[in-house]
Design a protein that fits this description.
Layout (H helix, E strand, L loop, with lengths): L1 H10 L12 E2 L7 E2 L3 H10 L27 E2 L15 E3 L6 E3 L7 H11 L8 H17 L10 E9 L5 H4 L16 H13 L2 E10 L7 E9 L2 E12 L2 E7 L3 E8 L4 E8 L4 E8 L14 E11 L21 E13 L4 E12 L2 E10 L17 H9 L1 H11 L19
Antiparallel strand pairs: 1-2, 3-5, 4-5, 6-7, 7-8, 8-9, 9-10, 10-11, 11-12, 12-13, 13-14, 14-15, 15-16, 16-17
Length: 433
């Protein structure tokens, strides 16, 4: 468990202390950026996707057919910062006025969209959600800028040793506040305290890392950030790539067991992202088309379209207690998939409403089934006739699952600036500029 915490800690890497964040970054490309601009802009873009969640003000959260109590053993604890999700990104619904929460069921009209909200838009302050992973990279960028690592007036490379402050006195923690679209009464909005509270009990208040930041003069990326440390006798390293040029804002993070790449093409109005998370055995792919403002947020005076899927894989059920859908044969290895969910829909600016269709497929010990088939989030099928979501069959999902390890290796080698024209299953392992 401690090894997992150390790995997660290094994903938060280079959260160094002190300073304001008004330094400007010298850009190796044709554009310009600020120290809080690149990942922060992408984070705002992802946060804007709440218009496609039933947890947003546009979706009007509605706990349909909610029981008066959870099934035996199914009661859940909501996160401190958003009661719609657990701290690790499991979607939850309130079941009564006593503050009891339990998991969604596939029969709930908004079930799939809640999965999307909690594993993408909700900030877990960890790699369990996309926005959680972005927050970590956001902290890296802020902290390095505070320490002057993006000042290339003396050359194209800056290296050094940085002391990591994991307490809330680190000014970068206060720079990033998560706000639920509909904050729950009593929920905290202090993401800095939430992050610090996850780390300090096991890791202490600070430690030291080595880092090198390079201003790139060729290729797709503008900056390359390497960082490493030895914690508890174990050595770890990670790499972050950043781009803010050609009307494109992009970032990609690579660790030993996770890689993600997110691109906001502001010129063409397209956001694309791909994540392969081998620790959680999860893969995500999303494409959003709309108008993004200078701060990275979607312009909600314009229509927006979204298409996305999430693949959940599994390991040997003989060594775990929660992998009932796995046709597992190898202890501790990724051996198949157990859940695939997808949504496709539009946000209509004139009515400030979203409509999207949802699909979910399950693999129950090798038996394929459809648990959610084209369910429209509004409850009216006629609202979703213009889109069908990402549909699949057992063979296509087996192929996608089998290709995920290869996709991890391929993204590691190529580190693409991803750019999707579609997110159907034909884009294997990924599509880039």
């Amino acid at each position: 468990m401690k090894k997992v915490l150390i790995t997660m800690l290094l994903t938060f890497l280079v959260v160094s202390c002190g300073g304001d964040d008004e330094d400007s970054l010298s850009n190796g490309g044709s554009g310009s950026s600020s120290s809080s601009g690149i990942v922060s802009s992408i984070d705002k873009s992802v946060g804007s996707l709440a218009i496609f969640s039933s947890s947003s003000k546009s979706g009007e959260l509605d706990f349909l057919s909610a029981p008066s109590a959870c099934a035996t053993g199914d009661a859940k604890t909501p996160s401190a910062i958003d009661y719609h999700c657990s701290s690790t990104g499991t979607p939850l619904k309130s079941v009564n006025g006593d503050g009891d929460y339990c998991s969604y069921e596939s029969t709930d009209t908004t079930y799939v969209s809640e999965i999307f909200y909690c594993s993408v838009i909700f900030n877990t302050a960890s790699p369990d959600s996309l926005r959680g992973a972005l927050t970590l990279a956001n902290l890296i960028e802020c902290s390095l800028a505070n320490e002057g690592y993006f000042d290339f007036s003396s050359g194209n490379e800056n290296s050094g040793s940085v002391t990591i402050d994991l307490t809330t006195s680190n000014t970068c923690f206060s720079n990033f506040t998560y706000t639920d679209p509909e904050p729950d009464t009593g929920a905290s909005t202090d993401i800095g305290a939430f992050i610090s509270g996850k780390l300090t009990p096991d890791m202490g208040n600070s430690f030291t890392v080595n880092t090198t930041v390079t201003n790139l003069t060729s290729g797709d990326w503008d900056y390359d950030v390497q960082f490493s440390a030895t914690v508890g006798g174990e050595s770890f390293s990670m790499n972050l790539k950043l781009k803010d040029s050609d009307d494109i804002v992009a970032a990609s993070l690579k660790s030993a067991n996770e890689i993600w790449s997110v691109t906001v093409d502001q010129g063409n109005g397209v956001m694309s992202f791909e994540t392969v998370d081998q620790h959680n055995h999860r893969r995500r792919r999303t494409r959003v088309a709309g108008t993004f403002d200078d701060q990275g947020e979607l312009d909600l005076s314009q229509d927006v379209s979204l298409k996305a899927w999430i693949l959940e894989q599994c390991i040997n059920s003989a060594s775990t207690t929660d992998d009932d859908y796995c046709d597992a044969t190898e202890d501790g290895e990724t051996v198949g998939w157990y859940e695939f969910t997808s949504i496709e829909g539009t946000y209509t600016a004139s009515t400030e409403t979203s409509a999207f269709t949802q699909n979910q497929y399950l693999n129950n010990n090798g038996t394929f089934s459809t648990s959610v088939n084209g369910v429209c989030n509004t409850g009216s099928a006629s609202d979703c006739t213009s889109f069908s979501g990402v549909t699949a069959n057992n063979s296509s999902l087996d192929t996608l699952s089998d290709a995920t390890d290869a996709a991890f290796s391929s993204m590691d080698s190529n580190r693409p600036v991803v750019q999707y024209s579609d997110v159907d299953l034909g884009n294997v392992p990924w599509e880039s500029l």
